[in-house]
């Protein structure tokens, strides 16, 4: 009992350091996407069309028919809801801040800027009233989901713009979203991996450490902050907040159980193989 208590005292500082390091890494990554990127900070009104239009496609990302369709959708949405959606694509040249006066952007405006020169295609300038319904974390996730190079390469710049705009429209029409709806396969795979890893941590912690012990519940509870974060916060939370489908949730739960079972039974298999070799 004394040896076990000493081991617990030695383990707690290491566990605390791991949790602090893990949270610090998350905070460090989040600062990279703290705010949507602003438009270029200079004026070049000569690039603006004389006729008022909600879309200025300087980079020619949008086919003509799709641009006309998006234009009609934006106008109808503004008439019905009052939210002002605008699209600016740019490459070598940009009108910069001149678009603010051209479109009369206000607190109910959302400006989508598509620029392929950076690491992410999309950037958003958002009015203060919009932030009340769609927080900054929503725009970070929206930017990284539809503007990353893999999505753009697979679906094209035009579809990345159209899909992100459709997502914004849907959330504004519903009265707001805290996260981007939908669960892409890549994000689900990440939640599945964290669920399995959480199960492995639980299984390792629950290994019996006494001869007559079946499950070491005290160790499982001691490490619950670690496997709980992996399984609940990163494995279950992103799924239930983004989709109502039960299949991804069921798969993550099964992944947690499988990881726990494998980690729990592995020492038993090792002991049996050792005994068999000894008898031989």
From TrEMBL:
Q: Mind telling me which InterPro entries this protein's record contains?
A: TPM_dom
Which stretch is the leader sequence? 1-41
At the top level, the lineage of the source is Bacteria
Keyword Cell membrane found: no
Name of the protein this chain belongs to: TPM domain-containing protein
Q: Which residues form the TPM domain?
A: 56-143
Q: Which organism is it from?
A: Euhalothece natronophila Z-M001
Per UniProt, the keywords (alphabetical) are: Membrane, Signal, Transmembrane, Transmembrane helix
Query: Membrane-spanning residues where?
Result: 188-207, 219-237, 249-269
């Amino acid at each position: 009992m004394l040896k076990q208590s000493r081991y617990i005292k030695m383990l707690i500082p290491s566990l605390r350091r791991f949790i602090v390091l893990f949270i610090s890494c998350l905070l460090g990554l989040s600062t990279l996407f703290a705010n949507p990127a602003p438009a270029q900070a200079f004026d070049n009104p000569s690039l603006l069309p004389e006729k008022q239009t909600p879309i200025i496609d300087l980079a020619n990302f949008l086919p003509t028919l799709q641009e006309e369709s998006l234009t009609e959708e934006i106008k109808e949405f503004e008439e019905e809801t009052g939210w002002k959606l605008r699209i600016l694509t740019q490459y070598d040249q940009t009108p910069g801040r001149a678009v603010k006066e051209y479109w009369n952007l206000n607190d109910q405006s959302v400006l989508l800027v598509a620029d392929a020169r950076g690491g992410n295609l999309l950037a958003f300038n958002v009015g203060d009233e919009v932030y009340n319904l769609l927080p900054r974390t929503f725009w970070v996730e929206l930017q990284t989901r539809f503007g990353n190079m893999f999505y753009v390469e697979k679906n094209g710049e035009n579809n990345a713009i159209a899909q992100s705009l459709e997502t914004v429209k849907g959330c504004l029409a519903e009265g707001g979203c805290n996260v981007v709806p939908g669960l892409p396969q890549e994000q689900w795979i990440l939640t599945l991996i964290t669920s399995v890893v959480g199960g492995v941590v639980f299984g390792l912690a629950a290994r019996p450490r006494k001869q007559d012990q079946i499950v070491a519940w005290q160790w499982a509870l001691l490490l619950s902050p670690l496997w709980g974060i992996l399984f609940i916060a990163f494995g279950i939370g992103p799924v239930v907040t983004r989709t109502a489908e039960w299949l991804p949730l069921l798969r993550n739960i099964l992944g947690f159980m499988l990881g726990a079972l494998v980690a729990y039974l592995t020492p038993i298999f090792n002991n049996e193989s050792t005994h068999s070799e000894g008898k031989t």
